[in-house]
Predict the 3D structure of the following.
Amino acid sequence: MGIFTIEMAVFQELQQSLQVDASLEDGQARFDAIHPHQSFIVQAPAGSGKTALLTQRFLSLLTQVEFPEQIVAMTFTKKAQSEMQERIYHALTSALTPLKPDAGIYETNTWLLAQAALDNSGRQGWQLLDNPQRLRIRTLDSMNSSLVQQMPLLSRFGASASVIENPEPLYREAVREALNNPDIAYSSATLLEKVNGNLSRAENLLISMLRKRDQWMPLLSRLSGATDKDVFDKGLEQLVNAEFATCHQQLKPVFPSLEKARSILLSIAPENRPEGSDWSLLQALKIDQNLPGWGGYAGWKQLANALLTQKDEIRSGKGLNKNNGFPSSKIAEEKQLKDDMSEVLSELSARNGNGSISAALGLIRSLPDARYTDEQWLGVVNLMSLLKTCAAYLKLAFARAGQTDFIEVAQAASDALGEEDQPTDLAQRLDYQIKHLLIDEFQDTSVSQFSLLKKLVAGWQPDEDRTLFIVGDPMQSIYRFREAEVGNFLEVWQGSLGAVTLSCKNLTVNFRSDAAVVEWVNETFPQVLPPQNEIERGAVTYSASTAKKASDADSQVQTHWALNRTPAEEVEQIVALIQQRLPQMKPGETIGVLGRSRGHLMPIANALKQQAIAFRAVELEALNERQEIQDAQALTRALLHLSDRPAWLALMRTAAIGLSLADLYVLFGNPKTFRKPVLQQLAEGVPKNLSPEGKARLEAALPVLNRAVSQIGHLPWSRLIKETWLALGLAETIESAVALENLEAYWQMLEGLVQDRTDVLDFAKLEETMVKLFALPDASVESLQIELMTMHKSKGLEFDTVILPGLGKKPRGDDKPLLSWLNFKSERADYLVMAPLDQKGQGSSELVSFIQKFEAEKQEYESGRLLYVATTRAKKQLHLFGSVTVTEKNLDAIAEGKKALEATKKSLLETLWKSEAKAFETLLKDYEFNPDEEGIEQPVPRVSRLSLEAVQLQRHWWNARLESEVSLKQLEKASDIKADNPYEAMSEEDALMITLIGNLVHGVLEQWVETGFLQEDNAVSKLQQQSGYFRYWLRQQGLSGSGLDAALGRVMHSLENAASNPELRWALNKNLTASATELALSSFGMHFNDPVSDDLVRMESHSMTQHHIVDRTFVDDAGVRWIVDYKTSYWHEGSGTSKATFVSSKVEEYRPQLQRYGTLFAQLEQRPQKYVLYFTYLDEWVELN
């Protein structure tokens, strides 16, 4: 007896014990779906118990296989993966204990399946409970990674590359390299012409295409050059013909009226015809012809132009005039023609009740030519060439970085499997290893993921004992922005995936929501979702559900519709609803406030905070939208780039400095000084007409800012910025504990970006990190009752009460893509239509608009599905908020029947309009327009500022701090800073030069230790040979001219001293015990006995973490810990003080710093210490103890 026969016999025996749950209308479908020898695709609507079914299916398969690894379950998220693993493992462990007497049918069946699985585990020796890792439950991304690691050569992908969470910088790097490639200069120039020379926009367009390259990369194989134009022309013709045929069918009832209109237009005298019209084309037009040909389309467009307004509405007979060919005339024939056309328009209007006639004519009018023009085709070829080059450079960028993204991994995995008709060894091995595949959330698969699945089952034969189990809900497909393609589900729903035949099962019972919610959804969504499935258009029809739970007195669906309700009023009503609902809720019940975007939720979050109502919101409030963070960010950017004028102006407007707009204009409004850095301009003098208060505020802020600039490069950026923030008095502007928490997150972010004073704080990296920096969620127990999140994030969750705000609001518009394309199928072949981006500022071409119409239609369908997901999160109560704006003019027009009441275009309320329009019309009957509602100016929030007294107090504190030499940075000053004013600002170039000299000398000394450079006999002569490299490095960092020469001279002098100094040569020997360079140490909550630490402790009550860098340390033969710090301080004969005095002052200045390092080492070890300062330019080796 074969294995398959034994397995079948085992399950048949088991099946006798399993029961169909006859109380469920889909009980038989659920029972059938766990059969381990049949393949299924299951549509599982919201709340239908999808995970429970997957669990039983997996357990059923475990009863049949020789090894558990022969079953592979794949899902999309780690959360879903963990949930499935937990469910299966819990079921297996529960089977070790007796079944509860009151267990239901589902619990009983699950227990029996788990027991049978454990029995098979025992027979096969799996020891499954001790080895749960043998359960192959994976995300699709981890499956791809596994395939790549198994066959790195076939996948053409290095196994060592790691997947990067944010590949955006590598995308940008690849795009810039491509745009600079001379071989495709013409293609690059074509793109730049399209965007009017805006290089940044060109880069962003290409980056957006790289994000979805899995969609268009396969198209490259179908576009080998201009010789393919005929193939693409055929595709465009097929698509245009198909669209026309649909419109033509809709117009069939009014063919006689259209024929009359054609005849009337042809009868109009040529001199009366509108300018630009060519009604002679109507001569050959045959109204009843389904495929009119290219010339016929032109005739149809002329007819549609004559019958429609610019808004695609049927013209009114009263509106006929000389502009459309019907001038006022006393000639009987002309008057009769006008009357006849008016009659035709009335006939068309009477038949246009649902707008189908005008829509069909409008679509015909917008159809593009059925062939590409030479210009359009050249645009397609150029852009595809540019995209192909970008993709090639991206591979190089990935290779250099040793990193990659999920798309690249997926493509590599696909390459590792070969083609469906030519599988690789890996594909054949997997074909042998995998007997059963389970795919969860199948509606979220992308084009590339769908292709991979096809390859995985390509070798399966109908007579083999292999099964495929697909589960998902196309009504919950809401991730098009992640390249999910719902058409994949609809295609497989037809009954097959490759050679695998699947039975279709539809779950209908909803276990989540009360009957009141389910009934409302069943009544509403057949009018929201399209009437039938269409693969190419992404159209998914509604599938009804039956509620398992009856309603109670608490169950309800309530619509909170209104006319002209302000956003603030809606927020107020939502907060009042929450306050009313909270006391009614039982322990453990929750409220979910689900918005289409974060912007819809932020006003609610702020209102809840004001009412002291705790809530939880993860990644809702972007910190860069908070005032305290914007102030800190302005300071960061200003110090990071001294010529960042917008940042400096924003800093001047912060509450701590508080210059008025009038003073800002006086200071910086002169166009002649626009290019000067702000501090340089202020150093040249303050205008006399600056207000007295403005002068006082500047006098308080400038010493702080100048000192901060003079110290750039001496400490980590995070510490420099935080010190300056405190010194400016910005801490005094913080008004809440939340703001303090937000700032703490910002400081931590800065510390994470750079921890060493020699590191460069990259502006692009800062901006990129800020986009992802969110306010920390409330972690209190009370906050668990209320959650605020976007509708997309709510998928898979449930709440007792769901509140949907802002349904009447329009979403943010999407940017037009670089290249639009559309894949579609006809009876004969698959076709592809593409269109390049139009010239910016010139509107959309008919071809681009035509293709984007399909995208807009797909987006409209997905909006309906998004609303379905949001409403089906509700268990007991559902509350919907939306408003329609009505002006007094529109109100009169609606009352007269000239205009219909409409929801905002593209809003979620628009998707509900068919079912909710009557409710708004009822509101309209009782609505009285308040003329005071229009033209009300919203109060402009005033910028809060510290009082002048507070600013001056801050200045006195700062001066006292300087006088007592209490500073976070007691570092060397440049020699060109005047002795009588040590805090005077140096120039930007001088500050840069000092920073770079220190960075370079420190870096070279560190390298000498690592390479043993000083142990070589000819080290000094080799050093001279490196001066060219040092000059190149300094130039690359921004130095030039005399500044470059001076910097190089000081660097070479410092390094020559170091290479010749016997004490330093000994100290730089890497063979010394415990040798370390640039050693990073951190302290938390430690207090050091030096002025620096004392001041820091006083000012940093909410953050006690400090970072320290030790230049050089080691332990000598006597067991003494040496702590050496390099100083590049500059002194010359004309400095006004002797060299000995200068060195002595510096030693006292830096002694606390070395003592601080010693304190840190004393926490780690018990040994004697020696402190040394080595002044590289002065060649002074000073032992401090």
